[in-house]
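Budget justification aside, the reviewers requested a transparent look at the raw inputs and outputs of the sequence design task funded under Objective 1. We therefore reproduce one unedited record. The lines immediately below are the structure tokens for a 761-residue chain.
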């Protein structure tokens, strides 16, 4: 196993992906001790279960015998594979390498070892059982060592996706069978299948799917001959492929779709025939993941938590990636998480853009933005989700689209990309003005507590006792800090893009709109007496006074001055408000609805924002305090470093540097994650971007300029190499409090922590 994967090896994970949108990531797996993939597969946001398991049958003169007992002895995981060690009865051991490869392939590669002095003749079988609901029995096909069928998957909103599932026994093909039976148990136990009877006199290739009724369970198998030499080793592969059959009539809904695609052409679908041939179990997946890591910026650090999380975060981003040219996913991009979150979601797209910009190429970072713009509604509103084969029930989320675009362009500048996004983003900004600031106040309305991505908080209850309704819809009206800051960021970005594209009129227009919005944030949302920004109740245009973590968002905009900095110190660094053991709680610790235990009105909820620490919010607040430190109060540099360090430390189970994680939310007092939700590796924040900008200290400036200014993390050493920046590679190396900067191997400068190096390419 290569060094790039070994540091992440552990025994308590199981997610597998190739970055193609079809992954193995069951939330609450039940069958990991059985070979194969019996727990659910995420086919984008749809689920398929089971896929297949593996049985080894003893052989005698009459044909296949009973299934060998399979007892799992150990299991270990890396991003590339899940390796399990089994005892297969007397004298036979097996090592299974489970992996996922592009094209919807799921492999169960085996290395069998015979410890006896006589050969062992077996039959290896990949098999599954499928409920006939949603199954098209007319599509069932078999051949020696091969079987396939088609079924229809259904999402939470009753939309459907047809897929073809193929099982293959790659070498020594013996038989393929499919038999219909009445429903019984759907557990991975060979003795319960019709094959235990039908193949008693020899494995045969057949399809038998008739009967009085066509409802029930379809049992499907693909088998191969296996001969393990005396005191020797035999390798084989049993595998399955999931192929979506069509994605419906995919139409780009944006009135500017042609404009977007003209300036950034969508890629053609990636064509995958089969996994590359290999005699080494798991090799194909390991090679793919090693190539991925080899192309990344490389980080080594004396702090084991920072170093480990850097590598782990890249795994999570690839886990949730999807390819372009597939249905509504015109461009390569990233999903928010696993399960029903395995879909591009607007609220997290701003995070993905910031982190994926540090890949060597810009395609995926740009793609997470372009996918939403290519499907923009005629009104100018953006979908909240981009499902692969439909655009119904997509909802709406506020997001920092302007900041995300400028972040990507700062690293990978391209006027074509800016031309592609400028008009759609302007259309969206006009929608915001028209629909969410109809009174022209410069402050923007939230009409539903879900659309901020931050439901169940006091800030909404301040304007309506019904704000915590479990249904989407216009139930409240709140001039929200986060929504308004995002609008301001968008308007400023549009002004900057217009100037870059020589659109002087557009630059002046959006600068004027941004000036109005910024003035309203400072003039209406800022409370000088309390020293805090606040949401505003539009009925009387009065501040609500509710203290939430989003109230710190204006600090990352450049709007604030020194008179607001004391308010940041007073509230953020107060342990009775936001400076908890693991900062920052989404709502202040002295909020009447505050709960560190994820409870709202006495009931534990899935996604409460009344006290839990959400990595999404932490990423924003880290930017806020870091910008305040660099522009107004250098004394805050230590607080910023401490905050980012505590944030990263929180993302490890029980403080163990070998067990990083990323759940939706955490307890602010204990750091315990929301494991009850089952959503690990939730890409709903940015962490590696913080490491680049504040731990290593590399921050893009205007045009070709940059600054290297590490914050005081107290590190003994750090080296960040191969960091892409405008077609060049940057290296930052820190030794104690001294650091050196190189570009393309050329020495640029050196200094000490606290004394930045400013340079231009």
């Amino acid at each position: 196993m290569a060094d790039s994967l070994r540091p992440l090896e552990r025994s308590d994970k199981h997610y597998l992906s190739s970055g193609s949108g079809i992954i193995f990531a069951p939330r609450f797996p039940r069958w990991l001790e059985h070979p194969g993939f019996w727990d659910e597969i995420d086919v984008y946001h749809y689920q398929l279960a089971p896929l297949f398991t593996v049985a080894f049958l003893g052989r005698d003169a009459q044909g296949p015998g009973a299934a060998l007992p399979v007892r799992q002895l150990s299991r270990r995981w890396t991003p590339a594979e899940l390796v399990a060690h089994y005892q297969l009865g007397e004298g036979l051991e097996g090592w299974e390498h489970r992996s996922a490869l592009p094209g919807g392939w799921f492999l169960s590669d085996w290395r069998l070892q015979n410890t006896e002095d006589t050969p062992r003749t077996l039959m290896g079988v990949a098999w599954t059982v499928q409920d006939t609901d949603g199954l098209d029995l007319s599509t069932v096909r078999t051949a020696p060592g091969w079987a396939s069928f088609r079924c229809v998957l259904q999402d939470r909103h009753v939309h459907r996706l047809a897929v073809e599932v193929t099982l293959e026994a790659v070498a020594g093909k013996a038989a393929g069978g499919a038999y219909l039976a009445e429903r019984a148990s759907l557990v991975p136990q060979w003795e319960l299948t019709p094959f235990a009877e039908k193949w008693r006199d020899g494995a045969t290739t057949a399809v038998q799917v008739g009967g009085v009724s066509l409802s029930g369970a379809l049992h499907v198998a693909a088998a191969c001959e296996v001969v393990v030499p005396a005191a020797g080793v035999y390798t084989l592969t049993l595998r399955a492929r999931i192929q979506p059959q069509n994605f419906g009539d995919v139409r780009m809904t944006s009135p500017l779709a042609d404009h977007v695609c003209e300036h950034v052409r969508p890629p053609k679908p990636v064509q995958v025939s089969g996994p590359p041939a290999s005699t080494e179990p798991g090799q194909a997946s390991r090679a793919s993941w090693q190539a991925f890591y080899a192309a990344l910026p490389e980080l080594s650090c004396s702090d084991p938590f920072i170093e480990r999380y850097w590598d782990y975060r890249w795994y999570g981003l690839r886990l949730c990636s999807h390819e372009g040219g597939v249905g509504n996913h015109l461009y390569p991009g990233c999903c928010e998480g696993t399960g029903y979150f395995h879909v591009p979601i607007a609220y997290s797209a701003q995070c993905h853009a910031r982190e994926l910009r540090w890949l060597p190429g810009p395609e995926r970072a740009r793609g997470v933005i372009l996918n939403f713009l290519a499907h923009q509604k005629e009104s100018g509103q953006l979908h909240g989700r981009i499902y692969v084969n439909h655009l119904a029930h997509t909802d709406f989320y506020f997001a920092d689209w302007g900041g995300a675009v400028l972040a990507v362009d700062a690293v990978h500048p391209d006027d074509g990309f800016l031309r592609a996004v400028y008009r759609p983003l302007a259309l969206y900004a006009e929608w915001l003005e028209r629909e969410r600031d109809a009174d022209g106040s410069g402050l923007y309305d939230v009409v539903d507590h879900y659309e901020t991505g931050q439901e169940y908080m006091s800030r909404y209850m301040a304007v309506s006792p019904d704000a915590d309704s479990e249904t989407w819809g216009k139930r409240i009206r709140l001039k929200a800090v986060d929504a308004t800051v995002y609008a301001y960021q968008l308007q400023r970005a549009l002004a900057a893009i217009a100037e870059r594209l020589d659109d002087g009129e557009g630059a002046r227009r959006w600068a004027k709109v941004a000036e109005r919005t910024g003035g309203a944030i400072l003039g209406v949302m800022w409370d000088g007496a309390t020293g805090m920004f606040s949401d505003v109740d539009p009925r009387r245009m009065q501040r609500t006074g509710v203290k939430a973590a989003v109230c710190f968002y204006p600090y990352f905009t450049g709007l604030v001055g020194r008179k607001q900095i004391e308010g940041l110190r007073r509230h953020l660094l107060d342990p009775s408000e936001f400076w908890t053991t693991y900062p920052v709680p989404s709502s202040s610790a002295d909020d009447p609805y505050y709960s560190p235990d994820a409870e709202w009105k006495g009931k534990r909820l899935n996604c409460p924002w009344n006290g839990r620490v959400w990595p999404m919010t932490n990423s924003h607040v880290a930017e806020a305090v870091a910008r305040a430190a660099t522009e107004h109060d250098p004394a805050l540099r230590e607080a910023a470093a401490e905050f980012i360090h505590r944030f990263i430390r929180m993302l490890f189970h029980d403080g163990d540097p070998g067990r990083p994680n990323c759940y939706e939310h955490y307890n602010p007092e204990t750091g315990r994650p929301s494991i009850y939700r089952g959503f690990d590796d939730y890409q709903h924040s940015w962490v590696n971007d913080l490491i680049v900008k504040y731990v290593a200290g590399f921050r893009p400036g205007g045009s070709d300029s940059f600054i290297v200014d590490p914050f005081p993390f107290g590190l003994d050493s750090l080296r960040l190499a191969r960091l892409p920046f405008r077609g060049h590679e940057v290296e930052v190396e820190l030794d104690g409090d001294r650091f050196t900067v190189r570009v393309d191997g050329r020495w640029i400068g050196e200094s000490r922590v606290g004394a930045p190096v400013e340079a231009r390419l």
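The longest strand covers residues 120-131. The chain has 15 helices and 35 strands. Computational costs for records of this kind are itemized in the attached budget.
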